[in-house]
Fold:
Amino acid sequence: MLRHDPASVAVSGPGTSVVAMRVLAFAAVKGGVGKTTAAVNVAVEAANSGARTLIWDLDPQGATCHLLGIDVDLKRPASQIPFRKRPLHRDAVKSSVKRLSVIPADMSLRNLGLELEAKKAPKRRLARALDRIAEKFDVVILDLPAGIDLAVESALQASGTMVVPIVPSTLSVRSFDQFREFAAADRRLGKRQLLGFVSMLEPTRHRQQDFYHELRDSRDDVLETWIPATVEVERACDRRLPVSIAFPGGRAAAAYKALWEELA
Ligand SMILES: Nc1ncnc2c1ncn2[C@@H]1O[C@H](COP(=O)(O)OP(=O)(O)O)[C@@H](O)[C@H]1O
Ligand SMILES: [Mg+2]
Structure:
């Protein structure tokens, strides 16, 4: 079986070219910074680009399905999904976007950290669950709750790239640095790619433009793509649609497409 490769590189030999499953975790110490919105819209762009894409909602709030207009009634608690015998993809539901599936969340996920604690090698648990579906998907996106508990840590260990939104404020940069310090302190996580991107930037505010340029000039772990704060995103959320469907050709859709392309 093809194991998923955290380094997510193209594996090629004579006459072969196999691209390993790529796992991106959208995470942050802070809540309300645009993780879920970015995770969903980047997943949509990944699927539109031809990748078989899975988004695994690990946040008890379950906003991923809400944003994609999916209503599910889970038969068993979502927190059990990583521990079940059957492979993960059997718990995924199809979205209205071609090639995009979702593993839904529910409130039981607030206990995932505690449930992991009772298992052997808890930090490797989610990676092991993903290993088993490595042939089913090209891209997996993990939408994580704010903060860093054992469940988030296990998800980060399963990812090849950790993607952190930074809203235009010094406190947000500070929490990005706290996140980086946390990752660097772990032998395995320290080797993962960690990238920030500026989220919810108001382009007409000069202070925020300066913020973006200063951040880009002073460090090499912040992506060039920034996501504008726009009513398109809020309206798409109200209509429970990806921005590229609610506002095709709009600024927000272009930004999430660029974010996917830069990450890919
Ligand atoms: N680019 C944006 N422009 C305007 N509002 C946004 C944008 N991104 C997110 N939001 C809004 O901000 C709130 C928090 O976003 P969300 O993605 O749920 O953050 P998180 O997952 O980090 O908690 C939501 O109401 C969402 O609609
Ligand atoms: Mg969220």
The mean pLDDT is 93. The longest strand covers residues 193-201.
